[in-house]
Amino acid sequence: MSDIFNNELFEAFASASDNVFIYVCDMKTNISRWSKASVEYFGLSGEYLEDAATIWEQHIHPDDRALYNEDISGVFSGTKPRHECQYRARNRMGEYVWVECKGSVIWDDAGNPIIFAGLMTRLDGQNKYDSLTGLLTTHELHHCKFSQGRGIAVLIGLDGFRKVVSNYGYNTGDELLVVFSRKVKENCDENWKLYRFSGDEFLVIAFDADVPRVEEFYGKVCRETETIELENGQKISISASAGALLFPKNADSREGLITKLEHSLEYAKTNRRGDLVFFSVEIARKHERGLALREDLNQSIKKDFRGFELFFQPFVNPGTNLIAGCECLLRWKGEKIKDSYPMEFIKVLEDYGGIRVVGVWVMEQAIKQQVAWRDTYGELQVSFNVSYQQFMDEDFENRLISYVEKYGVNPSYMIIELTESCQVDKPQELASMFDRLRGRGFKVALDDFGTAYASLEMLKCLHVDYIKVEHSFVRELSEPGHDIDYVIIDNLLRMCRRLGYDSIVEGVENGKVADIVGEMDVTLLQGYYYSRPVCRNDFEKLLEEDKQQS
Known about the structure:
The chain contains 18 helices and 22 strands. It is α/β, with parallel strands linked by helices. The protein has 3 domains: 8-126, 2-Layer Sandwich (Beta-Lactamase); 136-279, Alpha-Beta Plaits (2-Layer Sandwich), CATH 3.30.70; 290-545, TIM Barrel (Alpha-Beta Barrel). The longest helix has 23 residues, at 355-377.
């Protein structure tokens, strides 16, 4: 790799500003390096790119490409001393932003270009109006005097917009944003202000409005945008969540208002999706706890995963009631926070990307444990959860194979579980990953089946070995008046068998449910009736009991 990429000077310039992006291209190899900030902001595939000119041109607004190419051609033909051009470029959220690009070429003695380097600067001050929707940009928010007026601020964010873009493309995503913003504007009062806050978020400053009026406004927006029809007649279902606050009561400055609105919207998307949530002390405390959790988790990771531990919950054969394997479940106790449940700390790990690192640790521990039990208890089916983020990590498959080879585990006894409720942006890539893993002998499971809208759709594109049926289907199966639950679970298990899938029913909490489900066409059972998730020593006691019975 060229020295122009690997030096401290590049790193220093690259980290100097979040709004200025640098790039260096080795013209002999046609390989370029881009600053981390540019990779993150524009959604590039990585710092190092081959044929970056072609890739970058696709990020430029179609109306500006001719101007850009004319300027670049002038530089490399020698008619211009340097590249200098203003144009619109698409960022990772799919919005076009104005940038100013400046670059220079270094030539060798023969007159051949050897290095092309430059920088791009975001022209945020130039973007008074959003180029896509025509709405005000948040730069204009500086002119609002929140301390001198009263009203309610509302931050509206679309749910699952990234998936829309992934399924239908950027152009469809842009058209959807235009239609949505138009509906929001139509329902605003005359003295309200509407801003394009970010890619799929819109800010409403409702002057002199009270809570009932804002609730009425939000309800109408949601009803009118539940299904959006595009110009070509295509209909797309979408939902929105929103955070809100009263000003100046809850915030009297631009910075305070934006911060608290973002926290409220985050809370709405996480806990009350589709609702309008007003800022409260509870939300502030939850945000502060999230920050503290993140810091404590990071410290645990840095200290060789101190505080992390695997617990094990058995899979039971319905015919013999003997243990056939187990699911590995992550537990954690921090140095400062000792009362965090898995649903909470795993969500924090997923939000900031720490789940990738922790997921690798879980994977290795699960493989090591399966091998450790093998000589004493025979081959056990051992499952572990893998987040969608981890599946999409380019190193995931190689790491998995390396651990299998290192510890000598038989892949056919390892079950890799994907939580079905997670958002899958690239189903075809995930399907290819599943096929490769299954081709190597691993078992793949779709966890929590039935909890999300796309359950059956997921089955159509993903080839798996196990379907794990979510516990809500069997929770009240033994209670009178729940015949419909019996019909649903019975037919669901029959469907799995007809499609060639083995099944694991979760949430078996008592003997009656165990007897009822055990008579159905089910492969394995899991639940508190057999055992809660327990530490390694307690799980081995269960294995010893089974060993004596058999």
